[in-house]
Design brief:
The structure holds three protein chains of three kinds. By secondary structure, chain A is an all-alpha fold. Chain A is built from nine helices and no strands. Chain A has one domain. In chain A, α5 packs antiparallel against α9. Chain A starts with a helix and ends with a helix. The relative contact order of chain A is 0.14. Chain B has eight helices and ten strands. In chain B, α5 packs parallel to α6. Chain C is mainly alpha-helical. Chain C is globular and about 75 Å long. Chain C has one domain. Chain C contains six helices and no strands. The chains are: A mainly alpha, B alpha/beta, C mainly alpha. Chains in contact: A-B, A-C, B-C. At the A-C interface, α6, α7, α8 and α9 of A face α4 and α5 of C.
């Protein structure tokens, strides 16, 4: 167990350190998020009243798209220099690789969200700083990163690498999108918790189910 | 140290290794030669536990593969033709990362860096290293945890004369420490200088094997050509 | 060469007969519905084909687990076959639904839960096929498809529940009280017979097609192997 935690920790540290050196991935995700929000601004012609009811949807669409970029690059780095082999040759549990990469990807997603949310608040004058809302952002990001990391590990081994990830990922993460948007909207518009709880439950159920399935199945993705 | 019996590896309808037998004794330095597509890299990947055999008996350092792959990895060092290093980390950080994965203390890192002649560059990003330097660091990474078996897949690929010579020197030192080494290569002469035995892999099977003690360079080409014809059955 | 098993021929005949009988029941035995008229008869085959469409992802998920456990190629072909067949059947169901919806609801499409989930499942099927086309190594292709099918198996019900919790205008046919006002209807006995028989007929049809598809896959494999062997003999 100790070795597991140690290797997972090492992988997370390595990912954060390499990313921090160049910050390429983070900047790409950030700029892309802002562009998406900009596009939505014009595409939906968000007026003052409509904004509040659409905020949840716009935010999650942004996170989903930006997340894809982060996921793709994170796994591409491992594949291109053969580093994935380096990880596989070490005496670490395969699931440690999965958990480590997922937490790393989750971390980057949260960093981008931490920058985008205040900005969005500022641009649209909507307060987003309630614990309920932030909790939903966390739960949704966890589910998305877990399934995303697993699929990215698969996709990086195909020929059609870049375009395939969104195609595979989006249909499977719809429960996250639906539940997260409804729950986010609920918290923003101060709907009573009893009405929001069902969506939060769906998010928790999704995270639990998919994390377990992913850990069980990850070995098969790496074997030859 | 390495025992392989009737190893078969198939990729769908294509059979790459056909009931291959292969043996390496402890402390030997074996050079595995053969034309492209013969299956050298496949064999090495199976021995390093990265690939599962379709059928057959494989045992490395008394660990059965693929079932005991996890235990084997702690005793195995691998150098591929890709460096397996993170370009955005320094040399020292790369070794620190891998020492954590192999659960060993980082105190050997300066010693290893010195052995491969990279101590002055320890805090430089690997991205800035030449190919030769990256390969040297890759060897450092491979011996960090003091493995009993070292597998090298065409390590001289892309190296110029000088870098190749430096690599050879390191390999000879490393082999002298009693490790068992298997190296695939296209370079007949170099292999004869480094290895104690030459083995020829052709069309998915070992077709011939010869000790390098007292071997003439002229015999080398002969050995290679006849070995290939032998495989053509 | 694999000989066509006699059981398969029997299944061919059985499924053909059942579909014919189902058609007969639908057009001649079941009464014409009061409010909607003839167009309502689309319903029997519509639900049956939609049912087969859903079978696909469930069967693929199960086949996926079995493939990972046994490493036997036939499970991979079974998964692929289920997806291919269900992709087509669901498409047929959606089109039939559109044909029904146009005169009744005055629209070709709505975003209600069942229909939306159907569209999502179709997209998952398409994604599955795209994943396969991007992989050349047969072992990897089979493993990755199996994993994706397993993920789909868990994801689709969750998606459906989520969308259902939004709202629905899709007719609740089995026992809905306000059925007529939503465009639904209650079924009397001859209708029930036609309905359940159609379901059964199409399920048998699905099994028949799947068996054929698995045979086809196995034959393809054999041809590939023979071809590679002949190349090797030449060189």
């Amino acid at each position: 167990m100790n070795a597991f935690l140690k290797s997972t920790g090492a992988i997370i540290w390595k990912d954060i350190k390499t990313e921090w050196r160049t910050r390429e991935n983070l900047s790409a995700m950030l700029v892309f998020s802002l562009l998406v929000i900009l596009i939505f601004n014009f595409a939906l012609e968000l007026d003052l009243r409509a904004q509040e009811s659409l905020a949840g949807g716009v935010l999650w669409a942004t996170f989903i798209f930006a997340g894809t970029i982060g996921l793709n690059r994170s796994m591409a780095v491992e594949k291109d220099r053969g580093c994935l082999d380096g990880l596989l040759l070490a005496p670490v549990d395969r699931s440690a690789i999965f958990v480590g990469k997922t937490i790393g990807n989750l971390f980057f997603m949260l960093v981008v969200e931490a920058i985008v949310l205040p900005l969005f608040s500022f641009l649209y004058g909507i307060s987003l700083f309630q614990p309920g809302f932030l909790g939903v952002v966390l739960l949704g990001s966890i589910g998305y990163s877990a399934v995303g990391t697993l699929l990215a590990t698969m996709v990086v081994q195909t020929r059609t690498r870049d375009i395939l990830l969104p195609i595979l990922l989006f249909p499977l993460t719809l429960p996250v999108v639906i539940a997260a948007v409804k729950a986010s909207q609920g918290f923003i518009q101060l709907v009573p918790f009893e009405e929001i709880s069902v969506w939060v439950n769906i998010l928790i159920a999704y995270d639990l189910i998919f994390l377990s399935v992913a850990i069980m199945v990850f070995d098969y993705i790496l074997e030859e | 140290m390495i025992t392989v019996k009737k190893l078969v590896k198939r990729f769908g309808p294509i059979t790459v290794l056909r009931e291959l037998d292969f043996n390496v004794n402890s402390g030997e330095f074996v050079a595995l030669l053969g034309p492209n597509g013969a299956g050298k890299t496949t064999l090495l990947r199976i021995l390093s536990s990265l690939m599962r055999p379709s059928s057959g008996f494989v045992q490395v350092a008394s660990y059965r593969l693929p079932s005991q792959g996890a235990s084997l990895r702690a005793k195995l060092g691998v150098v591929s033709h890709q460096p397996l290093l993170y370009g955005d980390l320094t040399a020292a950080e790369n070794l620190k990362f891998f020492s954590k994965l192999y659960s060993i203390e980082p105190d050997r890192i300066p010693e290893i860096l010195d052995l491969v002649g990279l101590l002055p560059r320890r805090d430089d990003l690997v991205r800035t290293f030449s190919r030769g330097m990256q390969q040297r660091l890759a060897i450092g990474r491979a011996i960090l945890h003091n493995p009993t078996v070292l597998l090298l897949d065409e390590p001289h690929t892309g190296l110029d004369q000088a870098a190749g010579e430096i690599l050879d020197k390191i390999l000879q030192e490393v082999a002298l420490e009693g490790r068992t080494v298997v190296m695939t290569s296209h370079d007949l002469v170099r292999s004869a200088e480094l290895a104690s035995r030459l083995v020829l892999l052709s069309k998915g099977k070992i077709s011939s094997s010869v000790s390098t003690a007292g071997l003439d360079p002229v015999d080398l080409i002969d050995f290679y050509k006849t070995g290939l014809e032998g495989g053509r059955s | 060469m694999l000989e066509k098993p006699r059981l398969l021929t029997a299944l061919d005949i059985l499924s053909g007969l059942m579909v014919l009988i189902a058609a007969g029941l639908v057009f001649y035995y079941a009464p014409v519905e009061q409010m909607m008229g003839q167009v309502q008869k689309v319903f029997y085959f519509h639900v049956a084909t939609a049912w087969v469409g859903m079978l696909g992802f469930m069967a693929a998920g199960v086949a996926g687990v079995q493939y990972l456990r046994t490493d036997n190629e036939k499970w991979d072909i079974a998964g692929l076959g289920s997806v291919e067949i269900s992709l087509v059947f669901f498409m047929v169901a959606i089109i039939m639904g559109s044909i029904w919806a146009r005169p009744i609801w005055n629209t070709w499409w709505t975003w209600d839960p069942r229909l939306t989930t159907a569209a999502i499942v179709e997209l998952i099927y398409a994604a599955y096929l795209l994943l396969r086309s991007g992989l050349d190594d047969p072992g990897k292709r089979a493993r990755f498809s199996a994993i994706y099918a397993i993920f789909g198996f868990f994801s689709v019900p969750l998606t459906f529940i989520s969308i259902r919790l939004l709202r629905t205008i899709h007719p609740v046919v089995i026992g809905g009280a306000e059925a007529a006002s939503q465009g639904g209807f209650n079924m009397d006995d001859p209708m029930k017979t036609a309905f359940f028989f159609s379901l059964a007929a199409f399920s048998v049809f699905f099994a028949d097609l799947l068996w054929h598809r698995i045979r086809l896959g196995k034959l393809q494999s054999e041809v590939n192997t023979l071809r590679i062997q002949s190349y090797e003999k030449e060189s």
